[in-house]
């Protein structure tokens, strides 16, 4: 987003030697969480829109108590008390219902928020990301459709549907393609003037606490251009965060950088490290852990209708996407998964049939086309309640069922699609000390980072915040509440709250 020279000037300064002030906030990750937080930190402040009527009568009454006070400056715990919905986070439910008041009931009520750009309340910050704004959405095959309804993919004050209309495209079954979503997030950053805060192509390799004594009080004048914001460095701070890493230049070179920040926000998502089974032969060249491997094999015609079957391991939506792609190309599939087909925890048993017809089709295949009894679907075998024992060099794979019986199949390639974990290798001890159970790795579903529910500050490390899937908020519509909580907390720290 910036020329290499300018980016180098902004990032690569050894602040502890040159005497610059630490930056107030560094956000690691430029997906929807990071974009939304950057929007709020850029001085965009939400207020309750006068004469709006929210369908939740108790919330309506609370909002009317202080109509001239921004949502960021109100008591988020008080406003969110009593709200119920599809998230465990009270602030996520609050921000979602303010933007989409009756969306869970199929309604189309307008947001009860109005946005004011108050530049004097902006907080200088940088957003560091590997890809273009949008994060992992740029890594997903463009024609894939979102699990969530299209309007739920939007960010504050720029409805996704309105943007699609300008592109003269509509939603498919109320859902959007990954390509459209990725383009929308890039458009959002440009439209809201946030690009000056984004440093794309950056990889963070270390975040650690350092002494603040060696950092002088000379200002970092050019960190954010055209900003009248002032941030008073907290002289009482004895430590700050040092963020090290590198960014890739246009020529492909790696340029190291080192910056210091008073606060760091983790918004990296959880798609960095695919989960491994931990079985023999899993590191063989024909065993893959990403859907893109199948897409590449199809594109190169290295597998086809006459190939040995593709083994797909897993019973989530990514595994279903792989099955649909293989089925579309008439590629034979063996599908192995641990659960029963009727297990209520299986994602297919939680999706409405009308809205997700393609996933319902995969679920039908899983039920009707087992190895024990032939069904109507050619080129597909379902092996429920099985697990993989090993992968052989001869491409023969050994499975075992719940009764201990083993089966052997020869395959052309393997896709292990059993989920993913965040890559927090840049944190001490891989971030494990920050988790709810600090004896286990961070996992978005089973062991998220432990944060205060109304500030999203890590309970184990003050000044360090976490957002999105890292704290269990796995849908775009709900990650935005975390951004609201972080922005509210940082504004209080900066003493930028109006009297």
Top keywords for this entry?
disordered N terminus; seven-stranded mixed sheet; 12 helices; globular; 21 strands; 499 residues; five-stranded parallel sheet; alpha/beta; 21% strand
Helix and strand topology:
Elements (H helix, E strand, L loop, with lengths): L3 H8 L3 H4 L4 E6 L3 H10 L2 E5 L8 H9 L10 H5 L9 H10 L13 E5 L7 E5 L15 E5 L10 H7 L8 E3 H14 L6 E3 L1 E10 L27 E10 L5 E13 L6 E2 L12 E2 L3 H8 L10 E4 L3 H12 L4 E4 L20 H12 L11 E4 L2 E6 L4 E6 L4 E5 L2 E4 L3 E2 L42 E3 L9 H18 L6
Parallel strand pairs: 1-4, 1-10, 4-7, 10-21, 12-19, 13-14, 13-19, 14-15
Antiparallel strand pairs: 2-3, 5-6, 8-9, 9-10, 11-20, 16-17, 17-18
Helix pairs in contact: 3-12, 6-12, 10-11
Structure report:
By secondary structure, the chain is of the alpha/beta class. Helices cover 23% and strands 21% of the residues. Strands 1, 4, 7, 8, 9, 10 and 21 form a seven-stranded mixed beta sheet that branches. Helix 3 packs parallel to helix 12. The two termini are 37 Å apart.
């Amino acid at each position: 987003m910036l020329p290499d020279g300018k980016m180098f000037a902004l990032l690569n300064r050894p602040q502890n030697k040159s005497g610059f002030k630490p930056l107030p906030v560094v956000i690691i990750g430029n997906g929807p969480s990071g974009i939304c937080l950057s929007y709020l930190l850029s001085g965009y402040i939400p207020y309750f829109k006068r004469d709006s009527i929210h369908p939740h009568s108790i919330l309506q009454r609370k909002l009317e108590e202080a109509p001239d006070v921004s949502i960021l400056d109100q008591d988020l715990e008080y406003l969110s008390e009593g709200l119920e919905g599809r998230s465990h986070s009270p602030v996520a439910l609050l921000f979602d219902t303010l933007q989409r008041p009756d969306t869970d009931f199929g309604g189309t009520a307008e947001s009860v928020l109005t946005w004011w750009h108050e530049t004097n309340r902006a907080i200088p910050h940088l957003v560091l990301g590997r890809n273009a704004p949008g994060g992992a959405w740029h890594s997903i095959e463009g024609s894939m459709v979102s699990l969530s309804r299209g309007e739920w993919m939007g960010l504050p004050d720029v409805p996704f549907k309105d943007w699609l209309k300008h592109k003269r495209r509509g939603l498919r079954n109320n859902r959007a393609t990954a390509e459209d979503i990725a383009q929308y997030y890039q458009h959002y950053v440009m439209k809201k003037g946030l690009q000056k805060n984004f440093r794309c192509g950056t990889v963070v390799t270390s975040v650690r606490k350092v002494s603040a004594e060696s950092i002088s009080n000379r200002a970092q004048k050019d960190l954010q251009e055209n900003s009248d914001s002032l941030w008073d460095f907290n002289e009482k701070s004895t430590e700050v965060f040092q963020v090290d890493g590198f960014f890739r230049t246009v020529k492909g070179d790696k340029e190291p950088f080192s910056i210091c920040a008073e606060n760091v926000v983790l918004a990296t998502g959880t798609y960095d490290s695919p989960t491994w089974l931990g079985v023999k032969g899993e590191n063989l060249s024909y065993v893959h852990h990403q859907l893109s491997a199948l897409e590449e094999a199809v594109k190169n015609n290295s597998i086809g209708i006459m190939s040995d079957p593709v083994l797909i391991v897993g019973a989530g939506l990514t595994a279903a996407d792989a099955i649909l792609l293989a089925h579309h190309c008439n590629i034979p599939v063996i599908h192995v998964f641990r659960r029963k087909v009727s297990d209520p925890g299986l994602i297919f048993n939680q999706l409405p049939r009308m809205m997700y017809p393609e996933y319902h089709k995969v679920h039908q295949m899983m039920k009707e086309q087992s190895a024990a009894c032939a069904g109507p679907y050619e080129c597909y075998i379902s092996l429920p309640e099985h697990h993989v024992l090993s992968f052989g060099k001869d491409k023969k794979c050994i499975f075992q069922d719940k009764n201990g019986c083993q089966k052997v199949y020869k395959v052309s390639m393997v896709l292990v699609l059993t989920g993913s974990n965040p890559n927090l290798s840049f944190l001490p001890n891989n971030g494990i000390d920050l988790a709810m159970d600090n004896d286990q790795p961070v996992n978005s579903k089973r062991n998220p980072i432990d944060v205060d529910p109304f500030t999203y500050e890590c309970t184990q490390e003050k000044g360090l915040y976490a957002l999105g899937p890292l704290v269990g908020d796995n849908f775009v519509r709900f990650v935005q509440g975390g951004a609201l909580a972080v922005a509210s907390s940082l504004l209080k720290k900066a003493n930028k709250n109006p009297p």
